[in-house]
Write the structure tokens for this entry.
Amino acid sequence: MSLTDAPKIITARAQYDDSHTLERFLATGGNDGLKKALTMTPEAVQAEVDAASLLGRGGAGFPAGRKWAMLRKADVSYLVVNGDESEPATFKDHLLVERDAHQLVEGVTIASYALQVNQAFIFLRGEFALGLERVQEAINDAYKTGALGTNIFGSGFSLDIVVHPGAGAYICGEETALLEALEGKRGYPRIKPPFFPAAIGLYGEPTVVNNVETMSNLPWIVLNGGAAFAALGAGRSTGTRLFALSGHVRNPGVYELEMVKHTFRDLIFSPELGGGVPNGDVKAIIPGGVSAPWFYPEQLDIPLGQDEVAEQGSMLGSGSIVVMDTNTCMVRAAWRITKFFSRESCGQCTPCREGSGWLERVLWRLENGQGRMEDLDLLLDLCDNIAPGLGWPPQQTTICVLGPSIPSSIHSAISRFRDEFLAHITQGKCPHA
Amino acid sequence: MSYFTDGRQARAEQLIAIYPEQRSALIPLCHLVQEQDGYLSEEGMVAVAELCGVTPAEVRGTATFYDMLHTEPVGKYLVGVCTNIACLLAGGLELLEHAEGSLGVRVGATTEDGLFTLEETECLADCNIAPCVQVNHRYVRTTTPEQFDALVSELRDGGRASEIPSHGTLIRTRRDVDLAADPGLVAQERAARRAAVEGQS
């Protein structure tokens, strides 16, 4: 089977240069999904999404239908769309908001109808200046064409969507931190329980938080049926998914692929996709965002599916894959990832706030040839303090999962490339420099 | 007299109106202050506080959490170079070092002419064109030292003004509907649904 056989569900329109315009949207089936949804009962729309078995595309992979089911009896609710995309090397939502914002707005409107929510928010990271403008344009267009506002397409259903800019904080991708930010506060994650958004969300009301990619799938699902979506992929991983490929590959980019049907090797080496590694070969890959434990060359034949990756001790997460070739300094890679967590820790919990800073400083001195033999045990001990046992998924000592995500790259690097750490110490410098 | 000028007062009032609770407008209003003043000025924070019904200290306390809100003046062009993992592998640290030399400032500092502030950023979600550089949060896609220098001299000469507005201007597209779709109707629908839910239980 060719890699490009599967239907393009969410990137079909993006092939056009003017994919962001209302004209192109309407000329390519725009609003057809919404119009069909409005002829159905909200319960029937929910049933299609349930039948699709759509897993959330943000990182945690929670079934969207089940997330919605938690809200069915609620009397006031909000839909909040998470477009804070800040997990390093994740850039799929960037494509969706810039290239097909109308599809996103249509998806949000369908979800709001299914949930019978009259107010939705699209939260985008502030660094998406163009994306923010494109989504606002799409919202304006939707009001103009009767696809949003009062009595949408004569259905009696009304919805208002507000696009909300973030202001630069990775932690706001965590859904309760996002809600704090949307309430005009510092992005501090809330403790769960009790603050599960479906129970106590925005302004204390029941709230569904879904990812941009999850929402963008809905027009197709409603139009073609949940069963058609579920027929793609395998097991729990249904439909297609956007994979963001970066690092040492010839053709980095976002690829929409049918779930499970392809492997990491296909994605990285196929001439139609990544095109291979230009210099040397694969040394390690990060399979699902920097919170994920690394994979190595012998694991490249693992299929791109949620459970398939989880069974091998990592996660597909946000669907972003970073390739590191044989010339990469793994101490440096682990240091930079840890520096990121240190900068982005919100500071509420001691293991994360203090641990990330210590880890970064120890890795920095190792990378610069000033490390000590005991530093390796020190690093692992610090990691163990943040996520006891260093298992996967990690044990949580903190309010949110940012802290327990920190050890992944350090533990991976030391376990597999201990000799590289030792070489930094014995040579008194980075052997790759 | 209102703090905001050039039609921004109307936009500030619109921001207050479109959220169910006014404090939600706090961060968008901080962006609006930055659009007017180039940074989040003391006076601007007082104005935001009044509009949101909170104290100026709460505005400052919130704003200082966020990388994009600058409580000290920055240059006309905020240049961000990413050095996170995908960009690191593509030479992001080296490009940042080049930028320091080329602009003559260290990371975090502003050039003497007030034109450029240099920042080292975390991932900007454009990892297929690495290392990633943004100017005023617009992707400029200058991945080599030569391209970077060409961009800097273009900006010095006043180029790319339509594509890259001065620092602070974020969303140039105006929301053209003022209020919630129809607050009365929304309230009616909510009441009807509540009654239906109560009827079921």
